[in-house]
Amino acid sequence: MDRAKPIAARRFGILQPASASASGGRPSINRGEGNGRSAARIQIFLAALPFVVCAAAPGQPLGRREAAVPADAASVDSAVAAYYAAVSHNPEAAPNFERLRTIFLYVGMVIPPKAAGEKFAVSDVDGLADRYEKTAAARKEKAGGLIEREIARRTDCFGSVCHVFSTYESRTQADAAPFERGIHSIQLLRDGRRWWIASVAWDVERPDNPIPSAYLPGAPKP
After folding, report:
1. Which residues of 95-128 are buried (b: 16+ CB within 10 A; e: fewer)?
2. pLDDT at position 175, please?
């Protein structure tokens, strides 16, 4: 006698343990209780079936639509332009940190220049927003806002990686001339659908640190 079948059947509540009957020792079947348990377990199995199918075929689409790629992330040019548009602001407003969050990787780094003897103040967009609020009263652009624009660019790309040396100038709305010039080093990555800014580090022009002519407007393309 094959004992495997009765044992497997009892796990689903179909058969009760074998017992001798008056008709000759055949196992008795508890049709009332057994059938009730069987029906309940079949219902549980059918309810769980969609999850089993999904687990067995992880490559199958679930019918969800991916979020549309924002226009700011469609290209390297649009991402860099969005960066400058987001950091510029009117006197009564702040930089558009929410727009920056849409173009920066969630671990994207912002690294401003540092003075001699200081440590680099590396942060993400959230940290940049916090620092902006804490230092608002001391900034020159507090009274006149900030207008920051790109005046020259050199771009190098390979596959899904791009590096942009973006020369910029900063002024307030009241300034006839920029109060600062410098170069942003912007690293961008493409994930197959869109571009992300991975990091922005920069330094400012000083008497001992002039911007090389290769990174100024009118410089010949390399």
Report:
1. bebebbbbbbbeebbbebeeeeeeeeeebbbeeb
2. 86
